[in-house]
């Protein structure tokens, strides 16, 4: 009986993800500040939450029923209005856009829809941990290449983490089906430059490879950096699937609404996976996201547009946490985008005894012991590396700064108190 009903091999050994493990850690030890998971601990824009409240009491009963499987009509039309000018082409809302259960499902549909048994997929490390799992579920073979810091200097920025051009080129073979790009990058906050994107694009074109571009942090880019969509580079529209997120765009991660846009011939594969998996996403939240887009489209050229004000709101939070980490023994990489900071903790190694923690990797031992002692929860970045490269993440911890100012101030107090006690 036990053997017959074992977990299918395509799901590996069924290990807990870092999120399952660290949510339980937070529940067990109740750290005073959770800077682990990437979500705000304060309210989304009022017009966004009001939209959902209005829908809940709407006179239209159909807003509580199934909507179009590939995306609520009002939402896909507004997604097209947002992105068409940004990519320099008119998106077909009904054939080139798919609404998904978060960006997570957009990734799932793109990977499962295009990767076949034995196909190779190039993954840039560190990577969001589901990439590897989804590729293997599809029967694909992930091929990893790590972003590495040019130096270990202080005041390092995410731009200092780079790919080796020769190593990247060597990964492309006649078996390569796809490359997964994440810009702005989680967890480093790297915003890929035009030159870096052109290198990737040229290799994809040379070897006839798809690019899945995970751009969920697209609106969180700090000046003078600019987010460039790889689909806008010459001859890349035809081979790029771009992924976005309402959770990140409007600070409502719990709504779990995402999307993908790409040419209709590529989209067909995603639609097949989606219709046989999720089928359709919740109508009320899709309608609310559609209405929220309409508000932002009405002020798209104003600094008040949330697409632009969000980065301005996050910048002082980023700078505060960078300074706090530096003053308390960490060496943070200053992110150019996103809302995470990766910080080297090894200067604190003599202050913390990790021998009571049993995990294989040092960053797991550090973040667990640090949460128990200092009351601040961070995430171990080795979770974002392949087994062969986990050592590259062991000296770091990932902190999230899209948090209330008072919780960032509490973080500063807790770190100072911990340091003083050592």
Automatic annotation (TrEMBL):
Its cofactor is pyridoxal 5'-phosphate. It holds the Pfam family Aminotran_1_2. One of its GO terms (biological process) is L-kynurenine catabolic process. Residues 32-409 form the Aminotransferase class I/classII large domain. It catalyses: an S-substituted L-cysteine + H2O = a thiol + pyruvate + NH4(+). Coiled coil: none annotated. The keyword Acetylation applies. Keywords: Acetylation, Aminotransferase, Lyase, Pyridoxal phosphate, Transferase. GO terms for molecular function: cysteine-S-conjugate beta-lyase activity; kynurenine-oxoglutarate transaminase activity; pyridoxal phosphate binding. SUPFAM superfamilies: PLP-dependent transferases (SSF53383). CDD domains: AAT_like. Pathway: Amino-acid degradation; L-kynurenine degradation; kynurenate from L-kynurenine: step 1/2. Belongs to the class-I pyridoxal-phosphate-dependent aminotransferase family. PANTHER family: FI04487P (PTHR43807). Homodimer. This is Kynurenine aminotransferase.
């Amino acid at each position: 009986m036990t053997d017959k009903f074992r977990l299918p091999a395509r799901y590996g050994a069924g290990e807990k993800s870092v999120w399952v493990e660290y949510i339980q850690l937070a529940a067990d030890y109740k750290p005073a500040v959770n800077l682990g998971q990437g979500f705000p601990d304060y309210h989304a824009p009022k017009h966004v939450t009001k939209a959902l409240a209005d829908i809940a009491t709407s006179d239209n009963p159909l807003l509580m029923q199934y909507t179009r499987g590939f995306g609520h009509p009002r939402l896909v039309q507004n997604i097209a209005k947002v992105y068409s000018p940004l990519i320099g082409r008119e998106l077909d809302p009904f054939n080139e856009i798919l609404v998904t259960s978060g960006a997570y499902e957009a990734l799932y549909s793109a990977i499962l829809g295009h990767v076949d048994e034995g196909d190779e997929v190039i993954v840039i490390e560190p990577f969001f941990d589901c990439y590897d799992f989804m590729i293997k579920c599809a029967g694909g073979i992930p091929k990893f290449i790590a972003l590495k810091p040019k130096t270990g200097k202080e005041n390092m920025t995410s731009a200092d983490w780079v790919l080796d051009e020769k190593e990247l080129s060597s990964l492309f073979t006649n078996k390569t089906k796809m490359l997964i790009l994440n810009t702005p990058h989680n967890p480093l906050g790297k915003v890929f430059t035009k030159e870096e994107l052109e290198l990737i694009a040229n290799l994809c074109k040379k070897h006839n490879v798809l690019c899945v571009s995970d751009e969920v942090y697209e609106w969180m880019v700090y000046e003078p950096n600019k987010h460039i969509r790889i689909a806008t580079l010459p001859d890349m529209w035809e081979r790029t699937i771009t992924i976005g997120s309402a959770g990140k765009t409007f600070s409502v991660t719990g709504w779990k609404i995402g999307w993908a846009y790409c040419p209709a011939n590529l989209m067909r594969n995603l639609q097949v996976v989606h219709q046989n998996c999720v089928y359709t996403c919740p109508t009320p939240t899709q309608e609310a996201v559609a209405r929220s887009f309409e508000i932002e489209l009405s002020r798209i050229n104003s600094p008040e547009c949330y697409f632009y004000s969000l980065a301005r709101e996050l910048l002082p939070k980023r700078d505060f946490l960078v300074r706090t980490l530096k003053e308390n023994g960490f060496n943070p990489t200053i992110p150019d985008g996103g809302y995470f900071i990766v910080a080297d903790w090894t200067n604190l190694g003599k202050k913390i005894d990790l021998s009571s923690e049993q995990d294989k990797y040092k960053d797991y031992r550090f973040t667990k012991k640090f949460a128990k002692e200092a009351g601040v929860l961070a995430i171990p970045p080795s979770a974002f590396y392949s087994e062969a490269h986990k050592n590259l993440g062991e000296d770091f911890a990932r902190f999230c700064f899209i948090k209330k100012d008072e919780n960032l101030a509490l973080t500063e107090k807790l770190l100072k108190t911990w340091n003083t006690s050592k």
